[in-house]
Design goal:
Radius of gyration: 39 Å
Distance between the termini: 122 Å
Number of strands: 19
Strand content: 15-25%
Oligomer: single chain
Helix content: 25-40%
Strand order of the largest sheet: 4-3-2-6-14-15
Structural class: alpha+beta
Number of helices: 15
Shape: globular
Length: 542
Amino acid sequence: MKETGKGNWNPGDFSEHEVEVPEFLTQRQGEDGYRNGQNGDPYQIPPLPEDKELPPPEKPVSKKQRNRVYGRVAYMFSAMFLALVGYMAYFQISLSDELKANPNNTKAEEQKQYVVRGSIYSADGEVLAGTDVDADGNETRIYPYGSTFAHVVGYTTNGKSGIEAMYNSDLLTSNTSIVDQVGKGVNNEKVRGDSLILTLDTRLQQAASTALGAYRGAVVVMEPDTGAVLAMVSHPDFDPNAMEEQWEYLIAEDAHSPLLNRATQGLYPPGSTFKILTALEYIQEHEAGNDYENYTFQCDGYITQNDVTIQCYDGEVHGYENLQQSFQHSCNTSFANIGLQLDLDKFGDLCEKFLFNGDLPTLMPYSSSQFVLNSNSSYGDIMTTSIGQGDTLVSPFHMALIVSTIANDGVMMYPYFVQRVENTEGVEVNETKPIEYKRIISAQEADILKSYMQSVVEGGTGSYLWNDSYTVAGKTGSAEYEVNGNTGQEAEYSTHSWFVGFSNVEDPDIVVSVIAEDGGTGSAAAVPIAKAVFDAYYNNQW
């Protein structure tokens, strides 16, 4: 190639040189038959496709349309933000206590290296749990009342239970003054955790424990209008000061489950205490024109439907009765007859309103009560369930909630055990306010049941509770159960003794729920236990 000058070239300069044609240009280009470089033909470009009609130009988006799109996006992000805020509020209000009480929550346990576990006090100022620290910094959890508060206050050795578990985070949190925290830090000492002031009263707790005595069972005492739990006893019990030494015995199969809190975790057939709900369902189905007042029944001591026979206790014959008299006498035959007349689906709905087959509003570990009647149930199941037998099971704590609802004009309150949390200097950190859980029945329906329950004490199975110092309304129960169920042996039966009721009927003060295992009739064991609790309450000038 000739150089023609910088930046200039002459096309003719290539005429005397061969130009190497790239191989890809000598290959077939599609199916048009063109070849290039092989037959001397000049390189030809395949024809372009025919022109196609272009789509019309899009109309410009108006400002209004753009604003509509922006608005939708803004609404979407606002909804997402509100959902996030709602969840955080739900987390803080509804789940925080549950998460704090969760034994798998290790965050609080990390505080143990900085905080000495706080103390627990009764409502009357007694120490129920505290931590001693020796000269070497070794900590020992002390329970001055031993077994008296064992189940409700709980323990911290070999795991945690009761209030010790429920409020673990609070007890390992210190809201003491900055001066104290700095001073402890300088001296490389731990600060004291916050203290719990409970609703439990030592006098009532001791009275309930003494009255229950050698019976296996439970006693629950609470205020119906606030939900404050004043006493919770379970027998057999244990000494939380000696958990390590007694652990093997406590978990032995023949020890009768002393670690089980029978007040909340024990499930029993309710016996005749369940007639409260059977009567209520009949009243609700016959409220129009007060038709329930027209109920009558002739008690001959037994009733038979198909091949099922229900008898009154000890074969007693009550004769002619209306609804209130049937309740007052705890007449099994009359209530079996009532059960056969009920709308069982509505009956199931009523029981679920009272929290059967569901959750109880508490962080204290509990067993869910059960009610299994439905429209397909047999005559036998209907009749036995209506008198509190069959497959129905309930805990003493749950029965206390049911009776509290009646005493509180149909409103169930959230039960609680802690009045307030204080720092080590006695300054209040937070306080529990009574909160309404929900209205379950009308005030008028509650008043009807109050009068029925009062008649039980004035002239029925709870007459031992009648006195001049205070009024009581209640219901006794005798819950029969098979001792050797599913063993293939001939059936043997025993009877649990129940009482549920409240005092100062016109303006109820306390609710008492009692179960004495194998105690016989309600009037034989549970009623005297309840009387000891009522007496302790009023003799101490509450």
